[in-house]
Design goal:
- The protein is mostly beta strands.
- It has five helices and 31 strands.
- The protein has helices spanning 4-14, 212-217, 278-281, 393-398, 404-415, and strands spanning 20-21, 24-25, 33-35, 49-56, 70-73, 77-82, 88-93, 98-101, 117-121, 126-131, 133-138, 143-148, 158-166, 169-178, 190-193, 199-203, 235-237, 244-246, 252-257, 262-270, 295-301, 305-312, 315-322, 328-330, 336-341, 348-353, 357-359, 366-368, 371-373, 377-382, 424-430.
- The strands form nine sheets. A five-stranded mixed beta sheet has the order 3-20-19-18-17, covered by helices on one side. Strands 4-31-30-29 form a four-stranded antiparallel beta sheet, with helices on one face. It has a four-stranded antiparallel beta sheet with strand order 5-6-7-8, with no helix packed on it.
- Mean pLDDT is 86; it is low at 1-29.
Length: 431
């Protein structure tokens, strides 16, 4: 009961729609508020996982991965995108057997010039490859059709883009930095598109309202080095047959209504932590004081909980919101800030290394959520010989696990991974 009065106040402050009037929220509905008061407790996989499996990806000349830049999973397959080493899309079975490549690089019919992103349509057994245009293949890698040509990126004015397939609807998102000026009224952040990827309905990040001219003015200058504005990616999830998103810099998680083609608040996030000035915290190369402010960068919904990952200074902060009683836990063990210096400039670039880590009480050790897929799978990629290797086999052995037999199998697999071997993949299925 000690939070009751605060929550009532917060509900009044944060209950709003995605529509704005004269720069103010229009209050019309009530939704839960996640209040980031803290008490510490480690987060366990079995709290929200239905089952967990692992597979050792087959290593052969045809299937050798250089790097994994994106992974998606369905009930029978793993799709792995190696962008920077091979610029190719691989398909493996859930047991790890290499099945086929999807598409080929080239300029001929059914070939892509470059592979920027991909989507999976499990219902129709189709793969959408985004590479300038958008091409469609079947799961076996055979070309089926060309959705749109190479003018696809003319739809975007931003350097950071995302594509989403949900309930047979396609969505695209863009996040600043802008690489070209746009009209003030067309600074959209999220959009519904038709089957040919024509824009149908656009949504703006509410934080951009009133700042459009400054954002456009600070777009990237492609002909010389400049310190232009940027923001994090929009966090998008499709757990529980529901599309939700959190724009960067906002304190609201929105849900998408398919029937009405609209966004409405699902949760608001309340904290007493100080937030930085927009101009200061959106510079690409930031002064160190800009990192001292609090921000929530991502969230991870599950059946009974919503997990939130943020940062302040040199700390990564991970919270767990209980949907049933409204309590919030903070995890003791946190991810780490990774920082590198820009050559010739004494300016830091920062990111979060292993932002969302949980105790793997099912198989031992830890579970890092590297990728999410299909709204029901969380994926951890284990690479014992990578430069950023974090795997502690001794700790896995020493950890009491719910499934000791499967833990033993995993340990044996890790101990037999060679330096040139493909990684081992853990797949957790959400409740």
């Amino acid at each position: 009961m000690k939070y009751f009065n605060l929550i009532i106040v917060c509900l009044s402050l944060f209950s709003c729609t995605s529509e704005f009037s004269k720069g103010k929220y229009v209050i019309d509905t009530i939704h839960p508020v996640i209040t980031l008061d803290r008490y510490e407790k480690e987060f366990d996989l079995q709290d929200f996982i239905e089952n967990i499996s692992y597979c050792k990806l087959e290593t052969s000349p045809e299937s050798l991965l250089g790097n994994i830049d994106k992974m998606m999973v369905d009930s029978s397959s793993l799709f792995i995108f190696d962008r920077y080493t091979c610029n190719a899309l691989y398909r493996f079975s859930r047991s790890g057997k290499f099945l086929n490549m999807v598409g080929n690089i080239g300029q001929g019919p059914g070939e892509y010039v470059t592979l920027g992103e991909f989507l999976i349509d499990e219902n129709h057994k189709e793969v959408y490859i985004v590479g300038g245009g958008i091409l469609v293949y079947d799961f076996e890698g055979n070309f089926k059709r060309n959705v749109i040509g190479y003018n696809h990126y003319n739809k975007f004015a931003a350097a950071y883009t995302q594509h989403v397939l949900f309930e047979n609807n396609f969505f695209i998102a863009q996040n600043i930095a802008l690489y070209r000026p746009v009209p003030k009224d067309s600074l959209w952040s999220f959009a519904l598109v038709d089957s040919c990827f024509h824009l149908k309905k656009m949504f703006k990040n509410p934080v951009h309202k009133g700042r459009e001219e400054g954002i456009i003015k600070n777009c990237a200058q492609m002909n010389y080095f400049a310190n232009y504005w940027k923001e994090d990616l929009t966090n998008i999830d499709t757990y529980g047959s529901q599309l939700t998103l959190k724009y960067p810099d906002t304190d609201t998680i929105y849900r998408y209504d398919v029937a009405h083609e609209s966004l409405s608040p699902q949760y608001s996030i309340f904290t007493k932590e100080e937030k930085g000035d927009y101009e200061q915290t959106h510079l690409w190369f930031r002064e160190r004081k800009a990192f001292d402010y609090f921000s929530i960068s991502s969230y991870y919904p599950s059946k009974d909980y919503v997990y939130l990952v943020g940062s302040k200074g040199d700390k990564v902060l991970t919270y767990c919101y209980n949907k049933q009683d409204g309590t919030v836990r903070e995890q003791k063990r946190q991810g780490k800030i990774k920082e590198r210096q820009v050559p010739w400039f004494n300016i830091p670039l920062r990111g979060i290394e292993r932002p969302f880590v949980l105790d793997n009480d099912l198989l031992g050790g830890e579970f890092t959520v590297d990728y999410r897929s299909a709204g029901k799978y969380w994926i951890d990629v284990l690479e014992p010989f990578s430069e950023d290797n974090w795997i502690d086999i001794g700790r896995i052995k020493a950890t009491k696990a719910k499934d000791e037999a499967k833990k033993k199998e995993l340990v044996e697999a890790l101990e037999n991974v060679g330096e040139e071997s493909n990684p081992i993949v853990l797949i957790a299925t959400l409740k």
